[in-house]
Design a protein that fits this description.
Elements lengths: L2 E5 L3 E6 L9 H16 L5 E6 L3 E3 L18 H10 L4 E5 L2 E3 L1 H8 L2 E5 L3 E3 L13 H9 L1 H10 L3 E2 L11 E3 L3 H12 L19 H14 L4 H11 L5 H16 L2 H16 L17 E4 L3 H12 L4 E4 L3 H20 L5 H9 L1 E4 L10 E4 L5 H14 L5 E4 L6 H5 L8 E6 L8 E6 L5 H13 L3 E6 L6 H18 L3 H11 L5 H8 L1 H14 L8 H7 L12 E4 L2 E6 L1 H14 L8 H21 L6 H11 L9 H8 L1 H12 L11 H9 L6
Parallel strand pairs: 2-3, 3-5, 4-6, 5-7, 6-8, 7-10, 11-12, 11-14, 12-13, 14-15, 15-16, 17-18
Antiparallel strand pairs: 1-2, 8-9, 16-17, 19-20
Helix pairs in contact: 1-2, 2-3, 3-4, 4-5, 5-8, 7-8, 8-9, 10-24, 11-12, 17-23, 18-23, 25-26, 26-27
The chain binds 3-hydroxybutanoyl-coenzyme A.
The site of 3-hydroxybutanoyl-coenzyme A has 25 residues, from strand 6, helix 3 and helix 10.
Length: 692
């Protein structure tokens, strides 16, 4: 049973009981409807309260049903809401915590709503490429006004019941004791002589609705051409029409959006991110270690950002440096960063004081030896890591987790510097670490399962999305980006220019093309990696054009010139004649007749390079599932969310088609860089996808 029925002497409480978030699955919808019919048939029942168990009133429709016939199977949520709304006996929603999506729509269909002040309220369907499909676009404008409703629906943002207490959305907002308050409310209105209010009977109020909606539609159209936000505007506009007409418009739009690739991708991303922290051989009930105190070694850019991530979540941090100067610089930079945030109005002085009070600075390992977790963020050099880990092994209390923020080095080697390799793990944060959501958790051969459980749970606590990666060069993200960058270089050799490559990829939806990205990160860093590669593997081929660029001293934004020219105080990238001439000359030197390369080929070669390497990574077990790779790329590399990540995108294109293109590119320039991954080939032959 996913609903409970309890008669409390004239008032029936129907409780949603479908963990984890009381999703409105077919079974739950049927349960509510049956309970409503029972309450309506019982002459001893005068009123109904609908409540939820656990941590949510309801998180909305059961997203797992989307894309299956169950999603539209009767009783639909609309049918349930119609029954509630038409009930002659009053129905009161008791919202003690989360009411989102269909959960809020269910409440909007009730006659009265009682909520806890801090209950979280949202219609977040747009984030899944959808719109509220059970009357939300029609009832919310009637409850809180057209403009406020449109903002909530188009942004999908969460607010609190307290913030909306003054609107018709809530009849009563309480500090606590919601269920008792709702029951009392129900008893009070049970014998009300007048009909119980229905939001559908209200008119939408707005002085210049047409002009406002026109403006909103144009603004949204200008910021991108994703279908859902535009459909949200259209559906909210339909709330100005008679209620049932508006409802039909909403339903049509909902059904249309459900089958868009954008919605499939966003739904995939939702589940991929939640699945990422689940590691197949780490049972969900693995006991995590307690983390109350954190130490960070190294007050450089990474160390500071890592420290701030914990401070922001209210965890005490001790920052360790080798010199007083470096320590002072680190502390000053953290304070400055908080002050900058405060200037943007996103942090109060009290909050800054609170965070800084959690921060301790030290030059001595004695002051960190009691920490539960220590994260090393020193220079990326094995001998530097060795010194730190030998010291940590000597100093830290037994059971402390010893983490390295290395982005390139072998975590097993680092673990071997200690007598407790099971306590050692990689925590690869992305820069700026206090902002970027991705955390690659690098699992060494001996890393303890409880260490993984602890670190993935901790990631959620500090607002990061953790993905577990095995040990390999570059882990998941950087190993793949190397193949992507390699193709970008080959494209220049053959006929493209940086601005064309970047434009094509940005039109595809990437936040930034490869050349603008590397100009930000620093071309010298990639240069050093290529040099290392060439020594390790002399057969490793790549375009030399990036090396030529570095020989010209063009390291990127930090030197004012890279693939592009930059002007002081301006981050805009201006195409560079000097660079473009160099690229053309380089092709001539190679004897290549430059050709016109289509944007489609550019996107395919860059994205399929990610996909092919991703397939190898899954096959080798470095990632435990393809969706983890999508999570890495969505959260750390600016891959467009509405495309769901490289592996999901490949599934959408069809792996047969991806494999066919890869075979074609393998016959072209530098074709040896394309070795079709066996897993990709196998799935393509079977007609399956990575995420099947
Ligand atoms: N359907 C199915 N499963 C859901 C779900 C939903 N609506 N919402 C959350 N879950 C699942 C998650 O997948 C996760 O499952 P797992 O434990 O197996 O990984 C579990 O619930 C817990 O989720 P979170 O880790 O996100 O838990 P939090 O406590 O951090 O957050 C939440 C809870 C705020 C409810 C958050 O889960 C959330 O934002 N959920 C999505 C809400 C949403 O988008 N609702 C709209 C659905 S579409 C709709 O309602 C259409 C309607 O208009 C017709």
């Amino acid at each position: 049973m996913t609903t409970q029925y309890q008669d409390r002497g004239g008032v029936v409480v129907i409780t949603l009981d479908n963990p984890p978030v009381n999703g409105l699955s077919h079974r739950t919808r049927t349960g509510i409807l049956d309970a409503m019919v029972r309450a309506l048939d019982d002459d001893g029942v005068n009123a109904v309260v609908i409540a939820g168990t656990g941590n949510a009133f309801s998180g909305g429709a059961d997203i797992r049903e989307f894309g299956t016939p169950m999603a539209f199977q009767e009783p639909t949520l609309q049918t349930v809401i119609d029954t509630i709304e038409a009930s002659p006996k009053p129905v009161v929603a008791a919202i003690h915590s989360v009411a989102m999506g269909g959960g809020l729509e269910l409440a909007l269909g009730c006659h009265y709503r009682v909520a806890a002040k801090d209950a979280l309220i949202a219609l977040p369907e747009v984030k899944l490429g959808l719109l509220p499909g059970a009357g939300g676009t029609q009832r919310l404008p009637r409850a809180i006004g057209l403009e406020a409703a449109l903002n909530m629906i188009v942004s999908g943002k969460t607010t609190t019941a307290g913030a909306l207490a003054h609107t018709r959305l809530f009849d009563q907002v309480v500090e606590d004791g919601v269920l008792e308050a709702a029951e009392k409310y129900a008893r009070n209105v049970a014998h009300s002589p007048s009909a119980h209010p229905r939001l559908r009977d209200l008119a939408v109020q707005h002085e210049s609705a047409e002009a406002y909606l026109g403006y909103a539609g144009a603004t949204i159209a200008a910021t991108g051409n994703l279908p859902a936000p535009l459909k949200c505007v259209e559906a909210v506009a339909a709330s100005l029409r008679p209620f049932d007409q508006g409802l039909l418009a909403e339903r049509d739009a909902f059904q249309y959006l459900m089958s868009t690739p954008e919605s499939r991708a966003l739904r995939h991303a939702f589940f991929a991110e939640r699945a990422a922290s689940k590691v197949p051989d780490v049972p969900f009930d693995t006991l995590a270690r307690k983390i109350a105190k954190v130490a960070v070694i190294g007050g450089g850019l990474m160390g500071r950002g890592i420290g701030m991530s914990f401070l922001n979540a209210g965890l005490p941090v001790t920052l360790l440096e080798t010199t007083a100067d470096a320590l002072a610089r680190g502390l000053e930079a953290i304070r400055r960063s908080y002050e900058d945030t405060a200037k943007k109005g996103k942090l109060s002085q009290d909050q800054i004081a609170e965070r800084m009070s959690l921060l301790t600075a030290t030059l001595s390992y004695d002051d960190i030896k009691g920490a539960d977790l220590v994260i090393e963020a020193v220079f990326e050099d094995m001998s530097a890591k060795e010194a730190v880990f030998r010291k940590l092994d000597e100093m830290m209390r037994p059971g402390a987790i010893l983490a390295s923020n290395t982005s390139t080095l072998d975590v097993d080697t680092i673990a071997s510097f200690t007598k407790r390799p099971h306590d050692v793990v990689g925590m690869h944060f992305f820069s700026p670490a206090n902002v970027m959501k991705l955390l690659e958790v690098v699992r060494g051969k001996k890393t303890g399962r409880d260490v993984l459980a602890t670190v993935t749970a901790l990631a959620k606590r500090i607002g990061k999305t953790a993905v577990v990666s095995g040990v390999c060069d570059g882990f998941i993200g950087n190993r793949m980006i190397e193949q992507y960058s390699r193709q970008a270089g080959f494209l220049l050799d053959e006929g493209a220019l940086p601005e064309q490559v970047d434009r094509a990829v940005e039109r595809f939806g990437f936040a930034m093309g490869p050349f603008r990205m590397i100009d930000m990160a620093g071309n010298d860093i990639a240069w050093a990696i290529r040099k290392r590669r060439a020594v390790e593997n002399p057969a490793f081929n790549y375009s030399k054009v990036g090396d030529l660029l570095c020989e010209m001293g063009r390291f990127g934004q930090k030197t004012g010139k890279g693939w592009y020219d930059y002007k002081p105080g301006d981050r805009k990238a201006y195409p560079s004649k000097e660079v473009n001439d160099m690229i053309v000359r380089h092709s001539e030197d190679l004897g290549i007749a430059r050709r016109r390369i289509s944007d489609e080929e550019i996107v395919e070669r860059l994205v399929y390079a990610l996909v092919n390497e991703g397939a190898l990574i899954v096959e080798e077990g470095i990632a435990s599932k393809a969706s983890d790779i999508d999570t890495v790329y969505l959260n750390g590399y600016g891959f467009p969310r509405f495309r769901g990540g490289p592996m999901h995108y490949a599934d959408e294109v069809g792996l047969y088609n991806v494999a066919r293109s890869i075979r074609k590119y393998a016959r072209g320039y530098q074709g040896q860089a394309w070795q079709l991954a066996p897993l990709l080939k196998k799935l393509a032959d079977l007609g399956q996808g990575f995420n099947d």
